[in-house]
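Entry 12.
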Amino acid sequence: MIDQPREINIQLMGKDYKVSSGLTIIAAIEYAGYKLVRGAGCRAGFCGACPTLYRRAGSHKLYTALACQTLAEDGMCLVQVPFVPVVRRPYDIEEVAPSANIILQYYPEVAACVSCNTCTRACPQGISVMDYIQTALRGDIEQTALLSFDCISCGICSSRCPADIKHYPVGQLARRIYSKYLLPRSSQLADRLDEMETEQCEVEVETMMHLSTEELRARYEQRSFETVAGRDQKHSAIQKWGTAVDPVDYRDEVEEVAY
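Predicted 3D structure (tokens):
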């Protein structure tokens, strides 16, 4: 006889429900009978469509998470945030100059940051949100772009900010300026795109389709990083910033980094 999963009690948008244990929050919501029209996307932690606010039983603290990546707990009181309102200033990236004060021109509210670090503590990606807001304030577009690289635009940071800063559009603008004007162009990328257009890479793709998991892993771990002009090290955001840009072997690389 197969053991049935234990039921847990959750409070969803002010109403009590019993759901099976071991479900993610998003699955528990659907188990309770809700049809998610908004607030559900990739279900893999990448799209940022399912920000959640919740409290745990016996705790006064308000927690934030992605519903698809967090297990429902007994006594959890939660609500979905299908969209965090944000104002994006219109701009044409072809006309935006990569000057030191360009981000302040479009998002002057970053100057209101009080460095409380609430945004960083709320981020489900573990991004140093306050740090990239501070680098944006100082006009360092490159650091702002790299520090915000893993942002999935869920908006949780903005929902918790006492200064009402809308962080992720700031990171988006910095990354667009950085990639358009400041990031060195990769000759290898251009060559690879040409190979894709002429279908020269089809044979290589077909070969990789037949490799085992171990062989694919070995190829991944033995890959090389492109050397960037003007830098002493290979172009790896992890080596320079210590952020999880490369999640597959992030832990391995972090152990080797001397901070």
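Annotation: The two ends are 54 Å apart (CA to CA). The chain is about 35% helix and 10% strand.
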